[in-house]
């Protein structure tokens, strides 16, 4: 993160004291050199899983950022792929850096909570964006995805198994969320970014309420935990109504 290509501590501090949109506008030129970008290993594993359930025609990368996930769509969609994000800075980097061969590519500036599409896609994917939505916003978010999917369309995204309390990562994430809650209590505008607010059980329930049939696929590339459960799953929610 603090390599010459990545953001400095000062730049990260300025971002954290901005709104989510403004913060990502500022971070955009260096975002691909941070740990916040979804790793290629995760993108490749999701692409492999979707190839087994596809092909699809039109695809949407929801909260696409600098466009890393667009190549996943390009591998499984035959007609067109669209990246949508509310940060103009991130979209500018996506347009500049992403070279997607195959289907036609479109970029749209839009808020995921008010998408400007209707029954336009066969597949919607999202990578690493859900920490920017509060739990109370998930029902509305999933209704938006349901609305932009065609009947029978799929909403797919990876979910990492949460670390257990004995693992240092558990306490790191807990501490990060605590710091963000204090920051948002003391500073405006808020910067919503919580790592432990997106719980699989809650997510599955809200997806089903929104009209999806939910299936979980283990991503074998990441192995299993000590109890035999997958380290990483792909959620595939199919629009049924």
TrEMBL record:
GO molecular function, one term: methyltransferase activity
Identification of the protein by name: Class I SAM-dependent methyltransferase
Source domain of life: Bacteria
The entry's keywords: Methyltransferase, Transferase
Transmembrane segments: none
SUPFAM superfamilies in alphabetical order: S-adenosyl-L-methionine-dependent methyltransferases
InterPro entries attached to this UniProt entry: Methyltransf_25, Methyltransf_Superfamily, SAM-dependent_MTases_sf
Residue ranges of every copy of the Methyltransferase domain listed in the record: 60-153
Organism of this sequence: Streptomyces galbus
GO terms of biological process kind: methylation
């Amino acid at each position: 993160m603090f390599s010459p290509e990545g953001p400095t501590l000062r730049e990260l501090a300025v971002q954290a004291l901005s709104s989510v949109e403004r913060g990502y506008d500022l971070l955009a030129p260096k975002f691909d050199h941070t740990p916040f970008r979804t790793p290629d290993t995760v993108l490749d594993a999701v692409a492999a899983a979707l190839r087994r359930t596809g092909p699809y025609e039109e695809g949407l990368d929801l909260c696409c950022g600098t466009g890393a996930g667009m190549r996943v769509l390009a591998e499984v969609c035959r007609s067109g792929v669209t990246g949508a994000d509310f940060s103009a800075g991130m979209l500018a980097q996506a347009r500049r850096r992403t070279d997607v061969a195959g289907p036609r590519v479109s970029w749209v500036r839009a808020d995921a909570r008010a998408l400007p599409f209707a029954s336009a896609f066969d597949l919607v994917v999202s990578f690493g964006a859900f920490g920017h939505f509060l739990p109370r916003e998930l029902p509305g978010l999933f209704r938006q995805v349901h609305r932009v999917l065609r009947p029978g369309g799929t909403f797919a995204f990876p979910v990492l198994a949460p670390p257990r309390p004995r693992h240092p990562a558990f306490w790191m994430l807990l501490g990060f969320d605590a710091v963000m809650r204090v920051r948002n209590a003391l500073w405006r505008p808020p910067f919503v970014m919580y790592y432990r607010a997106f719980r699989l059980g809650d997510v599955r329930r809200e997806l089903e309420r929104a009209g999806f049939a939910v299936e979980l696929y283990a991503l074998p590339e990441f192995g299993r935990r000590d109890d035999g459960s997958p380290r990483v799953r792909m959620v595939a929610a199919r629009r049924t109504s």
